[in-house]
């Protein structure tokens, strides 16, 4: 069973992402800020990280850069969760080290298909 870490400060988005992931059979870890997310990623070594870009304090792109420079977390795929799906944003997100992105609001089929593809699993 794959473990997904969700780093998201919006309670509604966290609830939805957690519900969808658990319904699809994933183990879910959660953090509401980048610092807690970094600590959980190092400690738990999840199979995938979903990282909100707009976080209080350290933003998700800075957190992703830290994850990708750390030998312990470098290989964990990071997918950005963003409401900023404008031209140029994908390049900025990928330049920070993210392996992909999912636009908010979450469309559940797309959301689960993207995660399943990154984890090489068949979507539920």
Strand content: 15-25%
Low-pLDDT regions: none
Mean pLDDT: 93
What is the number of helical segments per DSSP (H or I, 4+ residues)?
5
> Which class in CATH terms?
Alpha Beta
Share of helix, binned = 40-55%
Keywords:
single chain; 124 residues; alpha/beta; Rossmann fold; five-stranded parallel sheet; globular
Descriptive notes:
This protein has 124 residues and is an alpha/beta fold. It has a single domain, classed as Response regulator (Rossmann fold). Helices cover 43% and strands 19% of the residues. It contains 5 helices and 5 strands. It has helices at 11-23, 34-44, 60-69, 89-95, 108-119, and strands at residues 3-7, 27-31, 48-52, 78-82, 100-103. Strands 2-1-3-4-5 form a 5-stranded parallel beta sheet, sandwiched between helices. Helix 1 (11-23) links the parallel strand 1 and strand 2. Helix 2 (34-44) packs parallel to helix 3. It starts with a strand and ends in a 5-residue tail after the last helix. The model has no long low-confidence stretch (mean pLDDT 93).
Short description:
The protein has helices at 11-23, 34-44, 60-69, 89-95, 108-119, and strands spanning 3-7, 27-31, 48-52, 78-82, 100-103.
């Amino acid at each position: 069973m794959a473990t997904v870490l969700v780093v998201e400060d919006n309670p509604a988005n966290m609830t939805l992402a957690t519900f969808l992931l658990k319904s699809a059979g994933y183990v879910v870890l959660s953090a509401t800020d980048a610092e807690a997310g970094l600590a959980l990623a190092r400690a738990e070594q999840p199979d995938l990280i979903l990282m909100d870009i707009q976080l209080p304090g350290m933003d998700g792109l800075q957190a992703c850069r830290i994850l990708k420079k750390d030998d312990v977390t470098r290989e964990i795929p990071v997918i950005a969760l963003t409401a900023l799906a404008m031209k140029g944003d994908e390049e900025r997100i990928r330049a920070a080290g993210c392996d992909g992105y999912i636009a908010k609001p979450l469309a559940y089929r797309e959301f689960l298909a993207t995660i399943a593809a990154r984890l090489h699993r068949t979507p539920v």
